[in-house]
Design a protein that fits this description.
Order of helices and strands: HHHHHHHHHHHHH
Number of strands: 0
Structural class: mainly alpha
Number of domains: 1
Helix content: over 70%
Largest sheet: none
CATH class: Mainly Alpha
CATH architecture: Orthogonal Bundle
Radius of gyration: 19 Å
Strand content: under 5%
Length: 282
């Protein structure tokens, strides 16, 4: 692995991008899970796929678009989808959760149309769906770095407001937390989803945002502890997943998700055994 890092640029780009994603995805995911909006990452990932497939369609129509990183098309579509979700949530005040499947369905529909027009699946698209170590370029790593910096500035600047929004949205309205913070939050989520697609894959990125939080919820008591443990688990799964994927020639996104699932199952089993042991002692 060390030799690969020294000799191959894409390995360095993948590892650095993975470390950044392993940090920001669970970090922002903690706020998403607490707000019971876990499925929003799935919806935005499908919208991101629509943006990427649209970019590939443009490439087939004109070589002028070939130099544009598809990640930017994905980010643009994801941001638009995020804003539409928030708009629909305000329109359906009593049924806010319906906004997510609406946008998810639209994303899937657009993806199917654009992929068909762009002559179907290719190896690059498969790599974007499930993650690929060799596909991570310098521009991808720079994009991830920019997104990570934006995420950190946003969260540290508005942590108190985001905390209140996450636990009591009605109270946030009472005390006058600006609506634009909520819109910025949803845009940040869209950017994280899009930035994670090269390493984790579009269809699996939501797992990296939610599974570490789900595991941390079982072993922590406070919100700050939840964030710290989620990040630790995210980093461990990404680094471990990249190493395993490199040696076994597997999709890194799939390995990362499976590692997190195994950790979750192991945590649940250990807690069950612990409870039984305590009952046996008593």
């Amino acid at each position: 692995m060390i030799d690969a890092l020294l000799n191959f640029d894409f390995m360095r780009y993948s590892l650095i991008s993975g470390i950044l994603i392993g940090f920001i995805a669970p970090f922002i995911g903690a706020f998403i899970v607490v707000r019971r909006l876990s499925l929003i990452a799935d919806a935005l990932s499908h919208v991101t796929l629509g943006g990427i497939s649209f970019g590939m369609l443009l490439t087939t129509l004109s070589p002028l678009f070939a130099s544009i990183n598809p990640m930017w098309g994905g980010i643009f579509f994801a941001v638009v989808g995020a804003l539409l979700i928030e708009k629909l949530r305000t329109s359906y005040k009593n049924y806010q959760e319906i906004a997510i499947p609406i946008i998810m369905s639209a994303g899937i529909g657009l993806s199917a149309i654009f992929i068909s027009l762009a002559d179907g699946f290719n190896q690059e698209l498969v790599g974007l769906l499930f993650g690929s170590i060799s596909a991570v370029s310098l521009s991808d790593m720079v994009t991830v770095l920019i997104v990570a910096i934006i995420v950190m500035i946003f969260i540290f600047s508005f942590y108190k407001e985001l905390f209140i929004l996450s636990f009591d949205e009605e109270y946030s309205n009472v005390i006058g937390i600006p609506k634009w913070i909520q819109f910025l939050f949803i845009i940040i989520v869209a950017m994280v989803v899009s930035a994670s697609m090269r390493v984790v894959g579009i269809l699996l990125v939501s797992a990296l945002m939610t599974l570490p939080v789900a595991i941390a919820m079982r072993i922590t008591k406070g919100f700050k502890q939840l964030i710290v443990f989620s990040i630790i688990l995210g980093e461990a799964s990404v680094i471990g997943g990249l190493i395993i994927a490199f040696y076994l020639n597997l999709s890194p996104g799939g390995v990362i998700v499976v590692l997190l699932v195994l950790i979750l199952v192991a945590t649940m089993l250990l807690q069950t055994l612990r409870v039984k042991f305590k009952k046996g002692v008593n």
